[in-house]
Amino acid sequence: MKKIPLILCGFLLCVRTSSGGGIPYPAALNGAAVLESRITDINREALMLGNGDLNGLLWERNGTLCLRVAKNDVWDARIDTSQDVPMMQVDVANRKWNGGGYPPSWKQAYPHPRCAAVVRIGATVAEAGAGQRVRAEGSAPRISSARLDLRHAVAELDEAGAVRTVVRVLADRNVFLIETAKEVSLEEIKAKELPAAEQGESNGVKWLHMKMPGDMDYAGMEYAMAVAANGKQKAVSLVTSFDTKENVRSEAIRLARDTVAEEPSRLIARHDEEWLRYWSASGVANHEARSDEPCVFRRCWLCCLDWWGDAGAAYVRCSHTSIPNTPDATFEDCTLVSPDNALEVGYPNFPGHTRVKFTKCRLLVLNFSQPGGTPSGGIIHTPLDGKQLHVDLEDCQMMGYKVFSTEGKSPIGYTLTGKVQAYVQFQQPLPDGIERLAQWPVESFARLAPPETHAKKGRP
Predict the structure, then answer these.
(1) Which residues are paired to 223 by β-bridges?
(2) In angstroms, how far apart are the furthest CA atoms of the chain?
(3) Which of 186, 204, 355, 402 can bridge 208 by disulfide, Cβ–Cβ 3.0-4.6 Å?
(4) pLDDT at 17
(5) 3-state SS assignment for residue 64
(6) SS in 3 state form for 331-361?
(7) Continuous segment of H or E residues that includes residue 415
(8) How many angstroms separate the CA atoms of 126 and 208, rounded?
(9) Reported pTM
(10) How far apart are CA 274 and CA 267, in angstroms?
(11) Spacing of C-alpha 376 from chain mean position
(12) DSSP line for 78-138
């Protein structure tokens, strides 16, 4: 049976793949591993690890391997408007206004997310020049090779003398599992607007405890990190006051201890199993759609978190020599979210033709930059000639800079059924038959978030 590649970028919910739960493109995923000969610049060379809540940038700082750690709910969420002037009052009818001005609260360093700490691998105290982005002048990098295996979410680093370090953020808990013979320690990230963190050691477990201040409406938060060791296995945990009602320091210590007490092979097996499930839902290699056997995605939420320029919430590519009578992919009651294109079809110079259908879908693009700025492409985009793509739209609502974009001479073909609406940048024309929305599509915009979240009450 002929196979047609169909790749869905970003998060994909409520879909079973035709590959029986396996990774649809294992060779491509294996080939996407990140390889670096040096990781001394945190901005350009660091390896990123994470489990969706806890994450870290892994880089070499002045000869010391470090992790700059963050977590989704570690925020300095204060808002201090006590010195702000009253808001501007506008008399629209008479075109007059008074008051307003630059609010002093805008100059505050908060509210903003905070890095929790730096984890040092191999240095018990901060080395000279620790605040620099790159290695100190004249010092030679120790890491000779660094590999980030995306399939298994693991970083493997080699130094001269056959010294190896392996780092994971475990998928089933907020713990960095580090395999190294070196000592692992915690370094506070100081800020003048925040109190100092408490640091100490309890029965061989090093810890850092931070209490973030609140304001008149917000109680503040706490978080704690702990480092436990069992031979070459080191566990670095992070627990916040949003994770538990118990003492965060005690819980972080317990979590780190419990992790290193467990057999590493079992921890890694569960970690790999979670990532297998994730990548198994990352795309679909499906059969060629037929009128009596369509390829349908129903009630899915698809999102791309890349930046504009290469960011389709859904990517479809087919190899027909002309536009078929039957859609290659049909999306029903789906939400597609992206900073650039809800749908992207093909890549430059690809010869195939593709047909896609949307029924009762929401196609949401987030970049509304003005024409003089850096606007996104079309909500529906192809880098091919437009004649190679046909889109069927039925009772859909779209928002973005403009509806269609193509890098060829011919326009994208389309058919409309029912009510098809679009909210676009006001200077952009709409294709015939599509209704222009004059006001922000509130109901569709409310569907940006995944259909289910694990957010807890009280999080900033």
Answers:
(1) 210, 240
(2) 78
(3) 186
(4) 34
(5) strand
(6) EECCEEEECCEEEEECCCCCCCEEEEEEECC
(7) strand 413-417
(8) 15
(9) 0.70
(10) 11
(11) 19
(12) ----TTPPPPPEEETTTTEEE-----GGGGSS-SEE---EEEEES-SSPPTTTT-SSPPTT
